[in-house]
Known about the structure:
By secondary structure, the chain is α/β, with parallel strands linked by helices. Helix 3 crosses helix 5 and helix 11 packs across helix 15 (479-487). The chain has 15 helices and 15 strands.
Amino acid sequence: MATHARSHFRLLLALLLSLAPSLLATAGPQVKLTTGTIEGFYNGTMEVFLGVPFAAPPVGSLRFRAPQSPAAHSGVLATKTWSDGCHQIKPDYPFENTEFSEDCLYMNIWRSGPATGTPVPILFWIHGGAYMNGHALGTIAGAGSIATHILFSNPAEGLFRAAVMTSGNHIAGPIQIPKLAEVSVGSLPPLYNATGCSDLECLRAAPADTLFTGISTWINATEIIGDRLPFPPVLGGYISELPSLRLASTSRAGSLPTLITQVTDEGTIFTTPLLGTTPSLYEGDEYITDTPEFAAYNNYKIQNSTFTGLDELYTVTDTSLLSPYGTNGSVNIAVGVPVSPYVMRTTAMTGDLMVVSPRRSWLAAAIARGTEAKRQWSYRYNVQNPAFPAFLGVYHVSDLYMLFGQNPSSGDNATDVKFAALAQDMQQALINFVTNMDPQLGYKKRTTLAFAWEPYYIAKRLLLLNSGSRTLEADTFRKTQTDFIASLVPQMER
């Protein structure tokens, strides 16, 4: 028995020794954080860490409170799988997450190769999604979040050295956000109706699924995307004054190098619920044809005396002011079913109110007062995605497909070659900006782009991105309209 035992032991020892190299090879990269050590995995030359906690789970007594620091952990925390996504109305684009819950405050990190001890640039992505959904594509709310950090964070903390705001940013425009005191029991009737609660403590104890159902029912009752935002930025506490007013009174906008962008037809996605096959969805609804009703419907609280001017600036008779642009005011939803010019006017106003005018206001403030006035850039993406209907035009977020290498396919090889070249140029410019805070300067700060992209301060020109060309254009399209929108900011409630 002893001889057999020794033989089995030698065999087991030999087996373990033979397995040791492969066991060591499967160990993932480890990083020591202030809360403990995490371990990810290798994906080729990349080190990947998924589901890294950045705040305590906002559940129980922490629901509807400011985020708290994550708890420390002992041992090594495996960060190799996707965390749950946050409760939300799931959009139509694909998610890596298959489960949703409140316990969702985690980030995913990709690092190229092992740490060398030398600092490397970091691109930190804040997703969009109207402050109520997201995780993948989306820009306006993400850009608004970034702008809020620029305007209100303490520069001494050194949290970031540059910023990219795609389709940004709405908070620089004449938009009213609710005051902290207004976000109380009476301001969230869907939650109280769904739960039978009458105070926040009761809501904190209610099942998350019940809260989600109440909010979802309320949101789905609207007809224009963005009309009902259950959890928007709130005035009070961290956001001490209206962002648009702070932009006008400080030099924060130009305090760091910034790339701020737009696409040609920013409004089309937000007004698609107005599209239909019955005339009542064209001219019949009051909020389409009546400008004051439209503005109130979208939370743009401005004085009624200004609406006559706004109404005159966006007319259905001037087809150059109807979005999608470049269609001469004529585009179909389906064969023989045209988009109403009144819808196209509403779409133009939506894009200018939410993106174009605020983008220009931000840049104007940055180059006028900022310490980094000479390092501000902007582009307009002008390539229609052939996989989507023509009535969307060059729609909101469509540039992100190129920017992150998910090029659309046109079915035509020559066109797809142009798409691939455009995507490569956009990605190189982004990498350059992240690395050197200049979209033109790449490795060793050498110019790597085959086209000129000058800073905005020189002549207020942005880069026009077409499938076959990259050219500079004067930032003057619909300037009369966007200047008028910008003039509404002083009327906002303080």
